[in-house]
Amino acid sequence: MKPLNKQMVILVAIALGLVFSGAAYAKMSEEEAGQPNKDKRDQIIQQLNLTPQQEAQIKQLQRFNRQKAKELLLRLKEKRKELADELDKARSNTIIIRALIAQLKDIQGRLIEQRVNDVLKMKEILTPEQYQKFNETLKNMRKRNIEQKRR
């Protein structure tokens, strides 16, 4: 195999891996950004016996994060489409592919960073007991969602 062809195959493999590895994460984030689980989240928050101040802080955090996540997810979707389009071309441009891969990594990194920051902010807002209950409830919900998807 010629070095250029080998390089192209490697780039395509990396690009496809990036696209598909972030798919599950992005899908989960898209669902959260679209708020289909809003009722569940409201239910969890009610179980925590929040003070009015805590409730206001969490609602503000959710509003801010929802908009930020939607923007990042839209950019992620656009970049995936650009990458797919470039890969579909008869003669794909490796420079463009590398740039798109870097942009995808950056966006995915920002999404992860946002999630981590959200966790840290929730820890600041909630008491240790509230946070423990919140975290356990989320883990149980995730477990149930995974089990439902397997059926």
- Secondary structure: number of strands: 0
Report the total helices: 5
> Largest sheet, if any?
none
Structural class: mainly alpha
Give the gist of this structure.
This protein has five helices and no strands. It has 151 residues and is an all-alpha fold. It has one domain.
Give the key terms.
151 residues; mainly alpha
Protein topology:
Layout: H1 3-34, H2 38-47, H3 52-88, H4 94-125, H5 128-150
Explain how this protein is built.
By secondary structure, the chain is mostly helical. The chain has one domain (3-150). Helix content is 89%, strand content 0%. The chain has 5 helices and no strands. It has helices at residues 3-34, 38-47, 52-88, 94-125, 128-150. Helix 1 runs parallel beside helix 4 (94-125) and helix 3 (52-88) packs antiparallel against helix 4. The longest helix has 37 residues, at 52-88. The chain is elongated and about 60 Å long. Mean pLDDT is 80; it is low at 21-36.
